[in-house]
Sequence to fold (752 residues):
Amino acid sequence: MKYAPSFQRTNGFWPVVIALCIAAALPFFFTETHIRHILILIFVYAILASNWDLSLGYGGIVNFAHIAFFAIGLYTYGIAAKIIGLDPWLALLLAPVLAIAFAALLAIPVLRLEGIYVILVTIAAAQLLFQLVVSQGDFTGGTSGMVLIPRLEIVGYRLSSDGRIGYYYLSLLLVVFSTVFLYKLERSALGRAIKALRDNKYYAISRGVSEGRIRLLTLCASAIFPGLAGAFYGAYLRIASPDVFGLGFLTITLSILLLGGISTIWGPLIAAVVITAFAEILADYGASRSIIIAAMIIAVVVVYPGGLYAAMQEIWGLGTRLRTNVTAAWRRRFQASLRQEAMGVKDHLVETRHGPVSVCDTGNGDQTIIFVHGNSSCKEVFRRQFDEFAGQYRLVTFDLPGHGVSPNGNPDEDYAVEAYAEIIRNLVDSLDLKTPIVFGWSLGGYAALEYAARGTP
Amino acid sequence: MTLETFAFLLASGLVLGGLYALMASGLAVVWTTLGVFNFAHGAMIALGAYIAWQVTQYTTGGAGFLLGAGVSVAIMFCLGFAMHYVLVKPFELHANLVLLAVITTLAAASIMENAILLSWGPRDKQIAPPFTGNIEFLGTAIGIHDFVILAIALAALLALALFLRRTTAGRALRAVAQNREAAELMGFNVSRLVAMTIGLSAATAALAGVFVGSLRFISPTVGTDPLMKSLIVVILGGVTRFTSPIYAAFIVGLAEAFSAYFLVLYWAPAVLFAMMIIVLLIKPEGLFGRRTRTL
Fold:
């Protein structure tokens, strides 16, 4: 049977499908070439950053030669299509092959090193490549780069015609393929091995994960789509310049990745949109633009190291908590009679150390029974017990925090067996229940045991 | 090769070596103390050069040069001190410190470079060398200015070394580099010491910037090349002792001067980076290093 943890609840694919539909429809609303150019740039950055996440986030390999994969794709396309005269589409497919080959070469020093040395050796490798590109002026155009690289055509139709619509959809296609690839890879056995090596290297190795092989595969897999994107970039802009090796390009891509949040596939995609759009809005400010963006990056990293994706999830969580709180309040106010019908008594809020809980308190008798319900349940499950015992005992039951009609608790403190036991204790004190019998069902059973173990009455 | 050429190459190699030693020691001090690579080091060099240039606009001559250097070093020390609290302190204990510091220092470099661009414009500038004239050295004429620079650089390095070895504050810094927790337990204010380290590093960067600015032209991106050079130097030498990057700096400086003469100019940097990868592979702790982290 396939192991699929169900607790990682997602919102399904709907957000992705909606985003994809919007992306596919955008060129019909923005016919200007300039805006389409920005959108294509967003896609290229998204591919670069999200694939970097594979080695940096999931693999824990801080590979600063990632942009070199892109540069290799760019120059492979340029040289193969312009100087060798290969068919542009073949050159496009050749680019990732060479990028993978470089990744495999890069793996040799990376495998032997750790920590900051990986950063240094990858910087050195990228700079070495840069120096090679600059020194081989006959092929690469040296510092001034290559111009008039052949464009892509489909049976005579230039992808750049009709306001670059062909390039727009080609880049969108690349983003989709890249994202599907990353998504599938992350959930495959290989993806789990990659993450295991990052989280606990020696345990992973002892369980039969080959460090060398997996690290090599991680680097190679993270090179495929940057290589393709590089070739695409060359075909699209028709120039190849050694600027792509510069710190500026690296900083932008890395900040997209870190702002989006590492070890998330969607984070870099969202951040690519946000940062590129933001940079475009500030386009008129020249040098101040770079200052504002850099200051923003520092601010986000300092205030929120988890990145945009984590922030979005937190906001989503806040929204959910607010919604459930409002629902619970509404039910407390307007559906009280429904619950009274079931339980035979009206419930009311009682303040405890862990926030107010909704309590039913009925019956006559010297002995009290407290009923504690189970996980994801509510106090109304005990309605039959209430019918049965109401004549002989005093009966008390309550909704645990975040259950039934009790308000939500503080996630850090209130959802724990210890907290539940303290709530029972508070109720015993405030309702003057003397020495009650505590009846717990499921999760409530643990709460009851904890209550008993604390030696309280 | 004639003796004159050799003497010329030797002199320029030594001056380059002195500059690289100054740049790399600043980088190495931060690295050993924090375990973080400061990508803003190049931008600090550029900013230091521009501050000194501004001062020499008001006062000229040798006095202006020295005053400019002094002001620049003082301002950059304060800036480096402040940078710690903005760029490193907030996530000092975060698991991803190295990575987060990379991005914040890269961003800081971008801020500084663009601030320079805004305040001084993109045109190349030069700090007027105060000491003109040449002296004879093994049959070739070498500028006095070059010798002054080499002398000041060596004096600054010596002062830094004495500070680290002989003064209480310097020893405290080395203690933090060797064992942070123990230093904290001994009652040192580690945060302030680390900030001081970055301040010192910025001060050496400023001095290096002043020299670069008086030897060549300065532009907002003047720091990029020195950053890469100091990276190579630090890797080659290792950071085990304060002196190890200094030896490496002179080796790199001389190698650069001579390889530019013997090899095709374009190949010299590629050879340096290839050397760096090989050293990292065989002896990651550097040519003069042992496998420990001390200062």
User: Anything to note?
Assistant: Confidence is low (pLDDT under 50) at residues 1-9 of chain A.
